[in-house]
Design brief:
The structure is a single chain. By secondary structure, the chain is of the alpha/beta class. It has one domain: Rossmann fold, CATH 3.40.50.720. It contains eight helices and seven strands; from the N terminus they run βαβαβαβαβαβαααβ. The protein has helices at residues 18-29, 41-51, 68-82, 101-127, 153-173, 194-201, 203-212, 221-232, and strands spanning 9-13, 33-38, 59-62, 87-90, 135-140, 178-185, 243-246. Strands 3-2-1-4-5-6-7 form a seven-stranded parallel beta sheet, sandwiched between helices. The radius of gyration is 17 Å and the shape is globular. The two termini are 30 Å apart.
């Protein structure tokens, strides 16, 4: 199965590292024009330089997606720069790691409300995509939404809300010829990510989780990017309102 995104315009929030960067790279390699945003300029510049030999990133912008006005400006600017928008990937996360008032505020503002606001801002551009297959939104949730998360209750609850939101968005936007789906990654390890830090700071937890994974390894950002590209492709043209758990069987508990 070859996924060709030549001529497609793709926007990825939180695209400078980890899953977002892998998603942006995969789209770029498949021929798409890609815009990414993140809170830090250094990460954006590094991602752009890294991908120049793989089709490249056409547009980057510093954006705090928790700021609704800044997010609206970014979406509109990206659409103008790319000449439209065919795909939106809501990947940004606040990565809250506890249950404090601040963790809840970050999780709601970044993981949930940024998904709401970005999709609302992108809807006119996606509706005007002018392609028979229409526009597409892919939200990124987490396997944490499928089970109790006593260590990270705010994060898990926000991602569960994102999954419910996905179905509501899919039902609301179908008449506008826009599909909305969701990927829920399992434990994904990459440099600078949560599990990478856990390996150094909490090696017992890291090793216990690794041993619990049916395939004997953590997921990679590319594992998740492959699912995102499938959902954004014509191969998934009759798929909407779905959540794909991409965790290598981690939730099976085997």
């Amino acid at each position: 199965m070859t996924l060709d995104f030549s001529g497609r315009r793709v926007v990825v929030t939180g695209g400078s590292r980890g899953i977002g960067r892998a998603v942006a790279a995969a789209f770029a390699r498949a021929g798409a024009s890609v815009s990414i945003c993140a809170r830090g300029r250094a990460g954006l510049d590094e991602a752009r330089a890294d991908l120049e030999g793989h089709g490249g990133i056409a547009h980057t912008a510093v954006c705090d997606v928790g700021d609704g006005d800044m997010l609206q400006r970014y979406i509109d600017e990206a659409a103008v720069t790319l000449g439209g928008m065919d795909v939106l990937v809501n990947n940004a996360t606040g990565q809250s790691a506890g249950g404090t008032e601040r963790d809840w505020r970050v999780s709601i503002d970044i993981d949930l409300m940024a998904t709401v606001r970005a999709t609302n801002a992108a809807e006119p551009h996606l509706s005007a995509a002018g392609r028979p297959e229409g526009g597409c939104v892919v939200n990124v949730a987490s396997r944490s939404a499928f089970q109790p998360t006593p260590r990270t209750p705010a994060y898990g609850a926000a991602k569960a809300a994102v999954m419910h939101l996905t179905r509501s968005q899919a039902a609301a936007l179908a008449r506008r010829n826009i599909r909305v789906n969701c990927v829920a990654p399992g434990s994904v390890d990459f440099p600078g990510g949560w599990w990478d830090r856990c390996r150094a700071e909490k090696p017992e937890q890291y090793e216990a989780t690794l041993k619990s994974l049916p395939f004997g390894r953590f997921g990679s950002p590319d594992d998740i990017a492959n699912v995102v590209l499938f959902l954004a492709s014509p191969w998934a043209g009759w798929v909407t309102g779905q959540i794909i758990l991409a965790d290598g069987g981690q939730t099976l508990g085997v």
